[in-house]
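Hey, resending since the last one bounced:
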Amino acid sequence: MLREWLGVNRRAFLSKLRLGTVAAVGGTLAGCSTGNGQDNDQDSPPVDRQFRYFFSDESGTLGGVGDHNQPPDDVNEWQIIENTRTEDEWRDLRLNDVAYAEAYMAGETVQPTDGTPGTPAEIVTRTQELYEATDETGPVAFTNALIAAEDEVSSADFPGEIVPNIAEHAISELGYNFPAYSLTSTRAVHPVSADYDGVKPETVRETGVGAPIAPERVGTFGEMRTTLYLLMFKDNDGFQIRYVNRPGFSPWYLRDTLRKPSKSVYREPLSKDYFSMTGTQGRALKQYPEHFVTALDYRKAVKMRQQGLLKDGEFRKALIGTLLSMVDNGGNDESIPAGAVLGCNGNRGYQIESLTHEFGTSIEDFIVNPSSDRAEQFVGLGRAIYLIFETEFGEDYKGDPKFGYNQPLKITGTLAAPELYHRPEQC
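The structure tokens again:
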């Protein structure tokens, strides 16, 4: 039943959402059409101009981003993106992520897999057994149980394709109540052996040890290739955020499985030459701050890009990917085909052309100093971006609709008051 939904119903769902969207608000870029971008006689969005998106939040589920981006009276009709989804309908986009996990485990997705042992139902059952056998309760204990259950049942090479796509379904199935719980995929730079093809030479450093404790020389690709999880929840101490890694996954470079962002390896300052960690045999090894950064650590990522340690565009695309995953982690409703190239010049990910410094720092401030209000803004922004990409369709090689087709996006303002713009298409 779940695989039928994944393969068939999403196409019908997407077809209903083909809308003429977006708009032109003052300003053009060099090489693009001239004019002030405001043309009330035009009946479709000009792809060669910069224009701002506005939202008609009919259901009131976009929060502050809807309030801040209400359409003015003189705006073109096609500048306005309508939101009619209720909270239950938005939640369904996460609950049905289990369909992707089931398809992945059966070897039926576009991801490179022959499938894994077990099913999501078996993981849910094992999660309950592990969780209820511990003395601890709450969202952290549940998340640890879920990660351990997946490892026992499927031992997937890429557990990020399974764990966050089962989490909220499992909570619902088991009748648990964890306020504001969310487990979402995000991306990070991690160190790898310097012997790997593609490692940036300027990132290679010595660990001071050797196999089997750790590689003698390590570096990075300068890309956010590694998946980790962003855990959010509310407890008696307020709103909480944790970075989560799979237990036993390359233990030579991780302090532990689950940690507050402010105390994680990802926020080790670049001013520090190295820091020491205890390896698998109790020996100290050197680790390097430039080998760790996530899609949510804006200030450090900017410095790494300026120093040539992180490729341009990696942070922007990974951050927007995280925001979209908050809405639909499994991508069931996006219809992204195998081998699709999104954006100009063969970009990996969406064509996110620009994030302002003010906006990037406001995202990082939320991660290190979370609150319920900021969390609602974070989720609301993800929903707004999802709606933008949802209305921009192209076709894949089969003629099926493709989510987020060739959509250049610019974000200004702050998390509390963001503004979203279409950038002129350059290819």
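The chain has three domains: 47-84+311-426, 96-178, 180-295.

Sorry for the duplicate.
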